[in-house]
């Protein structure tokens, strides 16, 4: 990846899915990355919106085999999903940025934001394929989420330049803190947005 070549969201997301190691190492030496605000607006937000729009469209084509009272309103749940995923990006980014000093790594919110965004690409794809019928949709979605966890580790390692002994610590701490922030705010958003939660939850949380 040449230093003077502009970074574009869709080619970068596609490449990091199939060749994560070389792409992330090249990105680490790319030079100054866009600001964290630009990373969010140009990379994170388009991916989140695409994931939610496609998943809701597929659920419209292939409704889940659930009672109507256990299915949330598509618009309300779509708005909730965008906000919850955005909170997830922010929570993981803030966690990685503020915790990296504890693990003797260089600070930089733009690198933390890019690492989190690229690490979450498989999970956002998993949100789309989860709309396909069970068990294929759920199985593929779970595999992509596990891939996303591994990719987040590689992205944090490459873009934040951590030493070998500190990489797993930052990864685990980032996941724990980011997940806690997402759960707290995501659960509150579910109750605040009309239609985000179904009338009957059937023992599920509906927090994606």
UniProtKB/TrEMBL annotation:
Keyword field contains Transmembrane helix: yes
Transmembrane residue ranges: 39-59, 79-100, 112-134, 140-156, 168-190
Keywords from the named record: Membrane, Transmembrane, Transmembrane helix
- Report the subcellular localization: Membrane
* Top-level taxon: Bacteria
Q: Which GO terms describe its cellular component?
A: membrane
Keyword Ubl conjugation recorded: no
Q: Where is the Yip1 domain?
A: 15-182
Membrane topology per record: Multi-pass membrane protein
Q: Which Pfam families match?
A: Yip1 (PF04893)
Q: Mostly located where?
A: membrane
Q: Would you tell me the protein name for this molecule?
A: YIP1 family protein
Q: Which organism is it from?
A: Thioalkalivibrio halophilus
